[in-house]
């Protein structure tokens, strides 16, 4: 069964203001990198996948599988999972599969919303995980945090357009991580 919390990716998705801001801040977090031999972007291919290929200097594959039950094929220097785990029934399974798909010194770049009150969740999210619980999840999946950051995904004026957007200004952030495999 395909996860009903999975968001449909189409050309409209690539042009949303929130994605443009998120992708820009994600590239700022990644920074400049040495070229790698192989990369995998978890989820559907988007225009952001092309940007990742430029940053890492290699072609990126994408997944077209049920991330709650299917295995990731191949071994990669870099795997990215941006805004993925909040849509999954079982994020631990996906993280374990990612770990198996990384080469020994490989890196996982992952982002997900910081947990916020349930009434502010996106309808397509099955989980929104607070930082402390996410750290436990990484540890259970045998990852360690190399570095982390948080950022907002809306322009400042958005948070003053109503009561709910104002609450989003207080609670809504994206947490982003660079992770390595525990040895």
From TrEMBL:
It holds the Pfam family Methyltransf_23. InterPro entries: SAM-dependent_MTases_sf. This is Methyltransferase type 11 domain-containing protein.
């Amino acid at each position: 069964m395909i996860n009903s919390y999975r968001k449909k990716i189409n050309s409209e998705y690539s042009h949303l203001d929130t994605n443009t801001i998120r992708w820009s801040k994600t590239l700022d977090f990644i920074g400049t990198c040495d070229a790698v031999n192989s990369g995998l972007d978890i989820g559907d291919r988007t225009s952001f996948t092309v940007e990742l290929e430029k940053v890492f200097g290699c072609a990126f594959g994408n997944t077209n599988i049920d991330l709650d039950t299917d295995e990731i094929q191949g071994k990669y220097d870099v795997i990215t999972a941006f805004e993925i785990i909040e849509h999954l029934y079982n994020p631990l399974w996906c993280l374990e599969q990612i770990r198996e798909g990384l080469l020994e010194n490989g890196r996982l770049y992952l982002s997900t919303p910081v947990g916020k009150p349930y009434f502010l969740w996106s309808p397509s999210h099955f989980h929104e995980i607070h930082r402390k619980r996410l750290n436990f999840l990484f540890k259970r999946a045998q990852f360690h945090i190399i570095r982390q950051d948080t950022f907002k995904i809306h322009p400042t004026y958005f948070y003053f357009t109503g009561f709910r957007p104002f609450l989003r200004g207080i609670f809504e952030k994206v947490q982003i991580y660079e992770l390595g495999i525990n040895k």
